[in-house]
Amino acid sequence: MKKSFNKVYLSITIPALIIFFVFHTYPLLQGVFYSFTDWKGYGNFEFVGLKNYLNVFKDSRVGHAYLFTIGFAIISTVITNIVSLALAIGLNSNITFKRALRGIYFLPYILGTLVIGYIFNFIFSYFLPVIGKNLGIALLANNILGNPDLAWIGIVIVAVWQSTAFNTILYLSGLVTIDPDLYEAADIDGATPWNKFRAITFPLIAPFFTINVVVSMKNYLMVFDQIVALTGGGPGTSTESISLLIYKGGFSAGEFAYQSANAVIFFIIIVAISLFQIKVLEKRND
Questions:
Q1: What is the spatial distance between Cα 78 and Cα 276, in angstroms, rounded to a whole number?
Q2: Element spanning 191, H or E
Q3: Is there a contact between 145 and 231 (Cβ–Cβ < 8 Å)?
Q4: 39: region left, alpha or beta (phi > 0 left; psi from -120 to 50 alpha)
Q5: Which of 188, 202, 183, 165 has its CA nearest to residue 94?
Q6: What is the CA radius of gyration of the chain?
Q7: Closest-CA residue to 146 (of 238, 228, 210)
Q8: Distance between CA 125 and CA 119 in Å, rounded?
Q9: What's the pLDDT tens digit per position in 84-94?
Q10: pLDDT higher than 60, residue 1
Q11: 8 A C-beta contact, residue 168 and residue 84
Q12: pLDDT tens, 220-260?
């Protein structure tokens, strides 16, 4: 029986490991290798050592992309978790059509990101300006995606609108594990809704909060599709994220090796930020 189990286990595990290595680990190792060369994505190449890494730190365009990406990720993560936690608490209460509403709120997450982006592009470019002009609302009268100072707001709105669904489901998973007797005891003691949230709800769903914050930050740091569909990194380079810069430079500008070095640095930063978040949040949970 044990040998039969081992055969089944190996027959499932080994193909999965091979696929993971071929489509994930091997390309990663290739990128690290080419980051030490001057390869343009075609032709011959020579080794240049750490030259690409040093040039990344000197590149003002890369610096701006990092500032935009990190700022976007922080703002979006905060808004997403506030909104999703509020929705989860509302959907976990005794309301009519609770199950139907849970399904409706999850719909944005299963829709294609590019499709959503193009739809919101139309809304921001044509629909809202018409409404703004007819109602005399100056803020809506112009396309914010064409404004270098406001375009990021449109990207945040779309990213948060779509991502909130997943975070809400995770928070709901945490809320259903809380014993209702705790709330009944709090009601007897005369606790306010805020006191119940602060003393019961949030401490008991803290592990889910940690997961949501870490996953949200990681996903937002790698933002790509929303920017492609909404602004393409513009106006100018005002909304150019690191992922988009790596893609455009590596595949269109003959900077494959240089952007590979940028990607390696970006990978290290994402891992470092994630580990820092986990350490800080887990310490708080203790």
A1: 16
A2: none
A3: yes
A4: beta
A5: 183
A6: 23
A7: 238
A8: 10
A9: 999 888 888 77
A10: no
A11: yes
A12: 999 999 999 999 998 989 999 999 999 999 888 889 999 99
